[in-house]
Structures are given as structure tokens and as C-alpha cells.
Amino acid sequence: MIIDSHQHLWTPGRGDHDWMPKGHPILDRIYAPSDLSPILKANGVGATVIVQAAATVNETEYMLGLADGTDFIKGVVGWVDFENPSDLKTLDRLKGHSKFKGVRPMIQDIPDDTWMLRPDVQWAYAALTDLDLTFDALGFPRHLANFLTLLKRYPTMRTVIDHCMKPVIRDPAQFQFWADGMSRLAQETSAFVKFSALVTEANPDWSVETLRPYADHIFRQFGPQRIMWGSDWPVVRLRCEYEGWLSAAKSLTSDLSAPARARIFGGTAAEFYRI
User: Fold this and answer.
1) Separation CA 228–CA 213 (nearest Å)
2) Are 44 and 2 in contact (CB under 8 A)?
């Protein structure tokens, strides 16, 4: 069974998706389970993990409600306020839901690149570790060094790096900086990585060969046991439809063994998120 480790569903009218461009023809619209279900069936995807896209606990509750009524959603990655230590109670309460897996602070959108290392937010990482919940690390290549510091500080925190840390595929000159940082994360931490969102970091005329150096680097450094495929739907629609990225991902993994592909397209996500 293919597991999509990273997708979104949202209702912009709820008013908490601050990052979303108003009126955007692809992003600024409702995406509901009924929109995704036929796409999953057509592509042989049996389960998904829905990930937060708004910095509110209310959105997390909304996603858990969707998961309660949707068979294919097997996990929810939500949000709590890392700047509010009293949200430890919220985190502990959310853990009581069988489909709640962990949280994702929207670090890529925070102006202070050192925010993740601030003393006042450290309680959250300790709580995730103590509660055995997951941490989705969302950032850009400029955050690589700080994520390395953070993950070495909390070596037993169950961490997955979102979207291969968003390499700047539009500018090949930045490849080595990203590659070196990802190698250190792979070698010096136990972090997993999501094989997702590469197309949205590439130019509109992207091709499989454009993506291949980035995918190959991830495969070499992390290995299939620590890699999970994700669609990043509907954000992926900025470059292609669901089946376009899935087809590209299958092409990029075609030289791997069948057991390796099984890990990337399902087994790793099932293990990490305990699906």
C-alpha cells in the first residue's frame, strides 16, 4: 500500500491561513476529503497523513475532525504554540486522539532564523520527546545549521525533515550548500526525511532529470529506511497534478530495489507515524 506522508486539506474561510495569497486560483479554495479521495483511488494510494497549514490549535482540531470521518486519513500532524508553555496541556490532550501523531511549527515563515533555538521554546521539544510524539522540521536551506544543533540537542526526538529541506532547485549554484547540510543531518542525527515538494522548488518547466541530483543525494545519504514519499497536495498543484509528481517520484526511484521502493512509498511512513 502506498502511504502519502504529507498532504493538506483546508477551508480558507476559517481565516487562519495567514500565508495564503488571497484570491490565488489554486491555493485559495476549499480542499476537502471528497476532492482528494478519487485522486488517491486513481493512483493506488491507500492512506495519508494530513499536516497542519495554519498556526492555530483550532486547525488541528479541524483536521482531527476530518480524520474521524475519513478512512484514508491515518495520521494528523498539528500545531501548538511553542511560545506558550501552558500548551503542554494541549499537547497532552491531543495525544489522547488515536490519529494525532505530532506537531509542526511553521519555522520557514518565522523571520528569526534562530527562533528554534530560543530558550523559551525548548519546553516543546522536551515535551515531544517525553510524550513520544513526532516533530516535522519545516525550513529552508538557511536553517540547516540550526536544525543540526537542535536535533543533536534532542537526539531521541522523533523527527522528520519536511520536503528535503526545500533545496533551491531553481538555482543549481546553491546545490552544494544544501547537499552538505543534508549530509550532516543524515550522518549526525537520526532524522527521517520526506521525499516531497521537489517540484515546487524547481522552475515551472521542471523535468525528472532536473530533480534527479537532489533525489539521488537524499537516497544516498538517508537510505530508504529513513525516507518517506509525500505528495504535498494541493500545494504540488502549483507545478503539476498529484499523478504527475507521483509518476516523477516513481521514475526517480526506478533504479532502487523493490524492498527499497516499498519502504519509500509506504513502509517508512508507517513505521515513523505508527500507522
Assistant:
1) 18
2) yes
